[in-house]
Amino acid sequence: MLDLQKATLSKRVSAFLFDIIIFFIVVVGVSCIVNPAVGYDAKVDQLEAIYDEYSERFGIDTELTQEQFDKMTKEEQDAYNKRVEEANAALNEDEEALELYYDIIVLFLFNVTVSTLVAYLALEFAVPLFIGNGQTLGKKIFGVALMRADGVKITMESPSGAPIYYSTDGARLTQESKVYSGSFVAKLPLELKAAAAFKLNGGRSK
Fold first, then answer.
1. Residue 58 vs residue 158, higher pLDDT
2. Whole-angstrom distance, CA of residue 193 vs CA of residue 173
3. Is the model's pTM score more than 0.85?
């Protein structure tokens, strides 16, 4: 029995989605390592402490909801908005806060870049190299083989268990023909011939 296979669309999509999920998991994992290493978390905490200080100084409730704000009188809303403007103006003059803010932006971009690069190299190069046949984790799990665009995976089975001789160029089968030992990828176009090794070229195989 011959089975000429190419990966189905559902398998390819499933493998792709699985690799995407693993990619983002790795990105998050690397990010959790990079953040404290470069001092990102510490700078965020420092900036939040400064924001809390200004909020307390100017009487700003950082947890104020829109519904609570709408319940205020017009005078209370105007007074609150004025305090917010004054706090923002003071923050814009605070060199320490501005420096922390820009440092956080730079470190965030650095973190995203490094995490993405590490995840990409790990999943697209290290893992296929470790597996040994160029497959990503998704392709390995869903059985999507790496093959040429003009290739086809060929699987053969002999119900009697006898050796299978085959050729992919239409050549006559003899005992000197290739012996099937497992699934393989053949280049298209091909003219496949195969037979169990009982009578090849008029004689009984040994």
1. 58
2. 7
3. no
